Amino acid sequence: MGASLKDIACKLNLSKTTVSWVLSGQGDKKGISAETQSRVLACARSLAYEPNLLARSLNTGVSKTIGLILPSISDTFFAHIADRIESEAEREGYSLMIAGSNSEPERENALIRLFRSKKVDGIIIAPADASGREVGRLAESGCPVVLFDRGLAKTDAGCVVIDNEAGSHALVRHLAARGFRKIAIITTFPHLPTMELRHRGYLRALAEAGLHADPRLYGEVAYAGYRQHVCDTLDRILSTVPDTDGFFFTTHILATEALRYFHDRGIDISDGRRGLACMHEDPLFRLAAPPDERRPLPRRRDQRPRRAPPAAANPRKPIARLRPPGTRIGGAALPHGVPGRISPFRPDIPPPPIRKTRKTMKSCGSFSGN
Fold first, then answer.
1. Mapping DSSP to helix (H, G, I), strand (E, B) and coil, where does residue 360 land?
2. What total number of domains does the chain contain?
3. Which of 169, 207, 263, 288 has its Cβ near the most Cβ atoms within 10 Å?
4. What contacts 76, CB < 8 A, 6 or more positions away?
């Protein structure tokens, strides 16, 4: 067992209270002399003293810990966000506890209760439970809570999300402008507001382009066993509508599995006859799209898209995707985060803005934003 406050106090013939004030950085405030503070700090170093954070949190009511619940820890999108949140938290003197819900509502609710029992100072979560029951109780209890990537309409919790409908609309409109007419949508978790908005953007883009929303071109993939489900869904779509020439994937995970599917089936997606679009980014996409296609975009919401060239003029550019601002979302999820932006893959797809609800200021501090 390491040295305690009592050990330091006995060795220096000081009270435990004086030692505690010095080690907690309150020496000057409490009027303790510089000499005494130096003696305490030197003694603590010589005894390899480590503070009891649990005891400190019980005494102060502050644990300096934030809980982060992700749908998937292995997902690169959420991993990037977690990395930025951790950096921002560390800058503010907080540590991070991370857990994965596997997109299971019951597991997510159990993790919320677990974090609360550990007395974390706040929770950041990408919710899987559309009902928001446990998140609602969390917000009502006064615990600071921020949602990201997915909002919940029935809870009084702050939220940081991108404009999902605008993003999907821009991608599908892009495919239609390039001449693709039978555009399928492959989605998952349709009960989540995020996916509902992406589906709505897809339908709106089809309607504006004068295209029929064929129910045979709708594919819904279950999370459990999704790899096989993506293959089965694409098999069904291509067998019932063989001339399907466009595919919109609501997540990068679905698009990644689709690329494997096309490769395994010997389907060439680089000849310009099929168009693919995806809301997210993945390193694998670099294999299907040359790096020189990347171009920066300004952040203005009112920027008008440039006219896209005909599909035949770009035979080696099969994938259009919006690269979500994972690190920016992570920063915005904390009180002192910075606004984010999306750098889309193609110059003719405008970036949807990040939206932060004002309720976020109520639960975990203020920041500038929309």
1. helix
2. 3
3. 169
4. 252, 282, 283
